Q: What sequence folds into this?
């Protein structure tokens, strides 16, 4: 009888852990430190630069929405078990930023939605990406050659 009571106690603990809601850590944009412009050096022929947004440690998995210059991007997130706590999930979005434009600055915003326990102040990460293109000026190489 004692064993059955203990087994029931353990089962209830397992069920309560696996069904409780756990908010994610605030989303992050991985390429650069948060809160300051991010300078990215690219070759003049590069057409895309991949930006990664991550929210970790939630139960259930959080939904992430990614914006480029306030335009919502259609991206399918990856959900995977958190390696540090397999009862929670990490959500990852990877998006290629189109570099085939004259713009040298982009604002990337990552928003976590669907978790009521996540405070509003922790729902959004924003990063300014400043693109530095290589300066392979053909007129400069002509001057060097002749």
A:
């Amino acid at each position: 009888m004692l064993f059955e009571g203990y087994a029931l106690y353990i089962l209830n603990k397992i069920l309560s852990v696996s069904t409780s809601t756990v908010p994610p850590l605030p989303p992050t944009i991985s390429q650069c430190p948060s809160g300051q412009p991010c300078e990215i050096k690219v070759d003049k022929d590069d057409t895309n630069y991949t930006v990664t947004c991550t929210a970790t440690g939630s139960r259930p998995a959080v939904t992430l929405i990614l914006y480029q210059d306030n335009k919502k991007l259609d991206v399918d997130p990856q959900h995977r078990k958190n390696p540090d706590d397999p009862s929670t999930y990490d959500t990852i979005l990877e998006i290629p930023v189109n570099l085939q434009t004259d713009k040298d600055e982009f604002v990337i915003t990552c928003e976590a939605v669907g978790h009521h326990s996540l405070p509003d102040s922790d729902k959004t990460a924003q990063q300014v990406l400043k693109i530095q293109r290589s300066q392979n000026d053909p007129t400069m190489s002509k001057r060097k050659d002749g």
Summary: The first strand starts at residue 28 and ends at 29. The domain at 18-136 is CATH 2.60.40.10 (Immunoglobulin-like). Residues 137-146 have pLDDT under 50 and may be disordered.
